[in-house]
Design a protein that fits this description.
The structure holds two protein chains of two kinds. Chain A is an alpha/beta fold. Helix content of chain A is about 35%, strand content about 30%. By secondary structure, chain B is an all-alpha fold. The chains are: A alpha/beta, B mainly alpha. The interface between A and B is medium-sized, with 37 and 26 residues. The structure holds adenosine-5'-triphosphate (ATP) and magnesium ion (MG).
């Protein structure tokens, strides 16, 4: 990975004509070749940010540079590199699948290449449907058509705005397969999703946007490690009335029924304190019949982030 | 210059045209035929001739212009309004396409359709009246310039409109009266002096007059003025489109 970002978003703000401020001074660098997941609740500004980079919405302030080209001054070069699969299913009705995909390639300034169009359609299992009118396809199929259109001009940067909304398990699987393939070919991918496990599976880095502010950008692994708390639950042999005073200093919690003790610790530190805990419990004659540990998922992290600062 | 984009847009629009070719050509041809029967044959027999031209022949340039103006506007307006309405415009906005290129594609296709229509109407007219064209080159020039500039005008309306009602308001409320009062069925010299003066503010008068000159060498206003008027209108529309794309007015939020 080159250190030069492939997309550099600097100080982007957006106030819509209605007066609503959808983005507040967002700075974000996307690394070449990575999969970046943008998370955030409904109305956070994800689509607005993507639309600005793709040239569909004008930013109120700020600069975006895509692969070295300013997206306003040098829009031709910038946009030729970018592909977009929009959140909404905006498709032509009467065109055939192959015609609409071929159209996209031409629109982005590339010479016709039936072999490439065929490959894209085959990869998305659309080849059999190539002569069908787009309006006769199901929603999931239309989503594939939009993906095919976005890939028709071989973009180096691909934006996927909620690609898996309303998509069945199989297509979702195929889609992630395809995203991985694209990444292997060096395509940079920026996606938004509400399925956090997807981000957890797919992304190299994660950004969280809330009320128009980018509140966090982090390597996924580091994020999980940093914010991921582990919990150790102990089912007690005999219920306790209360936590013994000697143990009060430890991060222990007793369930209401008094039969489960929960110990919370950080995965980041080398010294988890578990050995010490178990020694103490033994010393006080507290026996347990079962134990299990759990790690908070990205979903927990996300929910606590979005709620916490709300 | 993104030639592939121009070609893609043009092909896309022409495919749309050919999908609905029969409907969209049939109705103007039908109404033109009705005009010929009513005005040319029935009324024309009594009117005799205007400016030394048989009345049925006299109305041909006007009858050619009426559907040409209307179809150019509505076809081009629809062509750009539909993607806005359906949301598919996002692709055009995100593509490396300049305003100029988009206009060539969309307006070129709309004008092509208008020219097809114009040709068809000339053929239809032939079935009723054995007319003769004095200045075929200028006739073709007026035909092309009118198709282009009014397709461009329609394109602007399509960009501006944010409802189907608005899309139809300009053709209905502005174009219909202007074309009917534009001298398609009469020479403005037949009007009382005051109305003659008022007519000179109607741009359609210049178009129809210019077209009639190219047919019969007779015009209400000097043909140079007609030519200047249509070129001026073309330039004005080009300016407005350029401004719309530069500012993103009604296109980009
Ligand atoms: N064209 C518009 N005019 C005015 N306000 C808009 C427009 N488009 C979006 N907004 C507002 O901007 C804010 C951000 O919207 P945006 O679509 O970017 O959110 P999002 O993060 O993509 O949400 P979701 O997860 O629901 O897709 C919202 O409050 C929305 O109502
Ligand atoms: Mg969105």
């Amino acid at each position: 990975m080159s250190s030069e970002p492939i997309v550099s978003i600097q100080g982007i703000s957006k106030t819509y004509a209605s007066g609503l401020q959808a983005l507040k001074k967002v700075d974000l660098d996307i690394r070449r070749g990575e999969i970046f997941a943008l998370l955030g609740p409904n109305g956070a500004g994800k689509t607005t940010l993507i639309s600005i980079v793709c040239g569909i919405v004008n930013a109120t302030t700020g600069v975006v540079v895509a692969d070295g080209h300013d997206i306003v001054r040098d829009y031709r070069a910038a946009r030729a590199k970018i592909g977009l699969v929009p959140q909404e299913l905006h498709t032509d009705a009467f065109e055939s699948v192959i015609a609409t995909v071929t159209f996209s390639r031409g629109l982005f300034g590339l010479a016709p290449n039936p072999a490439h169009v065929e490959k894209v359609l085959r990869d998305l299992s659309l080849w059999e449907k190539r002569d069908s009118k787009v309006m006769t396809l199901s929603g999931g199929m239309k989503r594939r058509v939009l993906i095919a259109k976005a890939l028709a001009h071989e973009p180096r940067i691909l934006f996927l705005d909620e690609p898996t909304a309303g998509v069945d398990v199989e297509l979702r699987h195929d889609m992630w397969q395809m995203v991985r393939r694209l990444r292997e070919n060096g395509t940079t991918i920026i996606l938004t999703t509400h399925y956090i496990e997807e981000a957890e599976d797919m992304a190299d880095r994660i950004g969280v946007i809330r009320k128009g502010e980018l509140i966090l950008v982090e390597d996924k692994a580091a994020l999980m490690k940093k914010l991921g708390k582990k919990q150790l639950s102990l089912s007690l042999q005999t219920p306790l009335q209360q936590i013994p005073a000697e143990l009060a200093a430890l991060p222990l919690e007793l369930s209401a029924s008094g039969d489960t003790l929960t110990y919370t610790f950080d995965t980041q530190t080398d010294e988890t304190g578990i050995a010490e805990l178990l020694r103490c419990l033994g010393a006080h004659g507290i026996d347990f019949k079962d134990l299990h540990s759990s790690q908070s998922s990205l979903e927990d992290i996300f929910v606590s982030l979005v709620r916490g600062a709300a | 210059m993104n030639l592939y984009a121009i070609r893609a847009i043009y092909k896309f629009e022409m495919a749309r045209t050919f999908r609905t070719l029969l409907e969209s050509l049939l109705s103007p041809v039908l109404s033109t035929s009705l005009y010929f029967i009513v005005f040319g044959a029935a009324i024309g027999a009594r009117v005799g001739s205007v400016d030394g031209v048989d009345y049925a022949a006299f109305i041909i340039p006007g009858l050619l212009m009426l559907p040409l103006l209307n179809e150019s506007i509505s076809n081009a307006a629809f062509g750009i309004y539909m993607p806005k309405w359906a949301g598919t415009i996002f692709e055009l906005l995100s593509a490396p396409v300049s305003a100029f290129e988009a206009v060539i594609g969309y307006v070129g296709a709309a004008a092509t359709k208008s020219l097809m229509l114009g040709t068809l109407i000339l053929i239809t007219a032939r079935c009723f009246v054995p007319y003769h064209i004095e200045h075929p080159f200028w006739m073709a020039a007026f035909l092309v310039l009118t198709a282009l500039s009014f397709s461009l005008f329609g394109f602007i309306i399509g960009l501006w409109a944010d409802s189907f009602q608005r899309l139809q308001v300009v053709p209905m409320l502005i174009m219909t009266p202007l074309t009917f009062l534009g001298g398609a069925f009469y020479s403005i010299t037949m009007l009382p002096p005051l109305w003659q003066k008022i007519s000179l503010f109607n741009p359609i008068v210049y178009l129809i007059s210019g077209m009639r000159w190219s047919f019969y060498g007779k015009a209400d206003v000097d043909v140079a003025i007609s030519l200047a008027a249509i070129l001026g209108f073309l330039a004005l529309c080009l300016g407005i489109v350029w401004w719309i794309f530069r500012t993103g007015y009604k296109l980009r939020n």
